[in-house]
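Chapter summary example: a protein plus magnesium ion.
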Amino acid sequence: MTETPTLSPDAEGIARAAGLLCDGGLVAFPTETVYGLGGDARDDRAVARIFEAKGRPHFNPLIVHLPDLAAVERIALLDDRARAVAERFWPGPLTLVLPLRPDAGISPLVTAGLNSVAVRVPVHPVAQALLRDFGGPLAAPSANPSGRVSPTRAAHVLEGLAGRIAAVVDGGACAVGVESTILGLVDTPVLLRPGGVPVEALEALLGPIASGGDAAKPSSPGQLLSHYAPEAPVRLNVTAPEAGMLFVGFGPGAGQGAGGLSLSPLGDLVEAAAALFHLLRQADALAAGRVIGFAPVPETGLGRAINDRLRRAAAPRG
Ligand code: TXA
Ligand code: MG
């Protein structure tokens, strides 16, 4: 495999992508959060290829993508609480970790042999069309080499994975821009990763939610401390940029540094999340050995997911 074709998101492109997936190939596709690297979740060899293409440690389980709640019910066991969450937030940027059905038919490589499974119903029309045309469950981590910045455009996917995957479907830029929120519902609700659905919205339905996540013993690879790492060093909560620093602002008045970069000139968290990973790449390309400094971002709503990704980008490299 030396070439990775870009497919258009029309019926013909979707049909070609579904055909490649049926043959056990890997296809990157847009979701509302980030681009996913899809493979047939029932096919051990396809799933093994996902880990190989990403250079991802095998102990990290993958999210299974499905077109609707009925398809999820064939793979996972839902109680009334899980069904209420699903009906409120699906399709959308939420992943639920649920008990795995014994007869789910999912490759044990997807769940890393656990008896729970992460499931998600994306709202993106291209993801929906691909899932329906393919007609089965798709395992799909973010379509980037392990530990690097997640892709929010087809060009980002090709930068990291060209020649290693069968195709990418180009659906333009991702609207949400950070990965899905992961909520564990095997036992008491636990937040495994902040993401596109603010935890405040989940708590309005479920009551207080504990944060799970022990960086030393990650059950979610998003919990590995150094992650989303650009090449350049990253510093956070910069209020007064030093000379020579490449500054990325947030809000009015900020972001008038040398590069004039800003997560959101208006201080809008939705806009900032959508821009985050593209800006990390842009800043990295411009930095040329300089430190990238980020202005403070409020720790509410989508700001929690943004700050979580920025802390990982700034963490000491292992
Ligand atoms: O927005 C997203 O969620 C994107 C798009 C492509 O859908 N996908 C994504 O996948 O971020 P990935 O593989 O980068 O992250 C999957 C997360 C990991 O942190 C993994 O450990 C967690 O889901 N996970 C999967 N199965 C799990 C399980 N049984 N228990 C706990 N965590 C699990
Ligand atoms: Mg990822």
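Key point: The first helix runs from residue 11 to 22.
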